[in-house]
Amino acid sequence: MSRHGAIEAFDHIPGPRVVCGVGSLARLGDLAQGLGGTRALVVTDAGVVRAGILERAVHSLRAASIAAVVYDRVRANPSSDDVAWAADHAREADPIDLIVGLGGGSAMDCAKGANFVLTNGGVMSDYWGYGKAGGPMLPSIGVPTTAGTGSEAQSYALISDPETHRKMACGDLNARFRAVILDASLTTTMPIGVTGATGMDALAHAVESYVSTKANPMSRKVT
User: Fold this and answer.
1) What is the dihedral of CA 137, 129, 170, 218, to 10 degrees?
2) Is 118:91 a contact under the CB 8 Å cutoff?
3) Alpha carbons 113 and 130: distance in angstroms, whole number
């Protein structure tokens, strides 16, 4: 409410489909199939591979007759180089018709970045800002394995410039994940330091959603 008693104006676009529950990673294949996927690029990192999570994700995709093309070399705080390498990996396995971001914020942001470059060409810096993807983008699914980044819930990819190290926030409504899997069991394999850091990250985002100059009744409600 405003100080005049009227409801504060805001523009809310409903987010992705959210599938929540322990063991819900097993539904990845069905969700991908529902989005029309037949050949998925899975963007992840070495830690997720070591934890055995990638194997479970790929099994679910293949059980739904969806081929899985894996890019597992995402680095922390990915740069436009990481995005380009993931996109090149996808092009070699053409045709890709679905993208899965599996991991922490770095993997999910890299997946979104690869979506920009694969579908609209150019390089990541071309999309710095919002709404700069002129053409359609591939449907995508986010599967977070950490609790803190919130990348699965919004339309931006935060990508570093490898030369200046500046963080580029590249957003577009079509870059949002069409579906998100929240499987709490995936967070149990994190090292204790990562658990603590991502927990603080989640708290910071909750506070941010309330005190931001662009906060609205919807963002404040979820806190």
Assistant:
1) -90
2) yes
3) 13
| DSSP code per residue over the chain | --TTSSPPP-------EEEESTTGGGGHHHHHHHTT-SEEEEE--HHHHHTTHHHHHHHHHHHTT-EEEEE--PPSS-BHHHHHHHHHHHHHTPPP-EEEEEESHHHHHHHHHHHHHHHH-S-GGGG-EES---S----EEEEESSSS--GGGSSEEEEE-TTT-PEEEEE-GGGS-SEEEE-GGGGGGS-HHHHHHHHHHHHHHHHHHHHSTT--HHHHHT-
CA distance 82 to 184: 27
pTM over 0.85: yes
> Two tokens at 75?
């680095």
Chain mean position to CA 204 = 19
**pLDDT per residue as tens digits for the range 60-88:** 999 999 999 999 999 999 999 999 999 99
